Amino acid sequence: MPPLLDGLRILIVEDEFLIAMDVEQLCRDHGAADVAIVRGLTEIDEHDLPSHFDAAVVDLMLDGVSTLDFAARLRSTGVPFVFATGYSDSDDLRNAFPEIRLVGKPFSGDDLVAALAAACGRAAAA
């Protein structure tokens, strides 16, 4: 059975350096082919998102700036993603993205990997 994230190219949108590094290692440990970290939305060329990434892990707030607009663009371009955030009680988030998995911080690595795999249509072994 291949790893859950086998071969995927994953974008991590996270402004907390240590969390971003942990998530990157987690993705690589579960088979991701490539992982890119961006700590601010200005670092992202949104026109190339679908061609460069298969999935994304998105924090709701980057330096006090909401990522909801960016998440809407991910959804419109068909890039699967999950939210990994400390703002798990956000009504704006639940109302705007009821179908998107939300993994609350602090999260376990297994929960995050399972949510990301599910978003990509991959299921964990029973």
Automatic annotation (TrEMBL):
Pfam families: Response_reg (PF00072). SUPFAM superfamilies: CheY-like. InterPro entries: CheY-like_superfamily (IPR011006), Sig_transdc_resp-reg_receiver (IPR001789). Residues 9-120 form the Response regulatory domain. It comes from the Bacteria. Coiled coil: none annotated. Keywords: Phosphoprotein. The modification 4-aspartylphosphate is found at residue 59. The keyword Ion transport does not apply. This is Response regulator.
